[in-house]
Amino acid sequence: IFQLRTGHIALNKYLKQIAKSQTTARCLACKNHDESVHHFILVCPAYADQREELQKEVGPRQCNIKYLLNENKGMRAMLMYIARMGRLEQTFRNM
């Protein structure tokens, strides 16, 4: 959760910033925007189906990154959402 809060997580924008990626900061799923935490969790069109499930779990607060990263119900739902996407499997494999 701390990595998501700070943006220091294995998403392409951060990996490019710290020179751990030889490619691009772009999202590999949609290729339209830099892959930041905000993009990954809230706006990437490639994850719309999974995000719909997240919205069912937390309701209208789904679009509030503070809620998803700080409230127990939001954090649990967000971690399930991330697991469904499989994008951060290495980071969260032991959860």
Would you write up a description of this structure?
The chain has 95 residues and is mostly helical. Helix content is 52%, strand content 0%. The model has no long low-confidence stretch (mean pLDDT 84).
Topology:
Blueprint: H1 2-6, H2 12-17, H3 37-43, H4 48-58, H5 65-70, H6 72-85
Helix pairs in contact: 4-6
Low-confidence stretches: none
In round numbers, the mean pLDDT is 84
Q: What oligomerization state is this entry in?
A: single chain
Order of helices and strands: HHHHHH
**Helical element count?**
6
**N→C terminal distance:** 11 Å
**Which secondary-structure class do the elements indicate?**
mainly alpha
**Which word captures the global form?**
globular
Estimate the helix proportion, in percent: 40-55%
Note the main sheet: none
Number of strands: 0
In terms of DSSP E residues, the strand content is under 5%
Radius of gyration: 13 Å
Task: Briefly characterize the structure.
This protein has 95 residues and is an all-alpha fold. 52% of the residues lie in helices and 0% in strands.
Could you list some keywords that capture this structure?
single chain, about 100 residues, mainly alpha, 6 helices, about 50% helix, about 0% strand
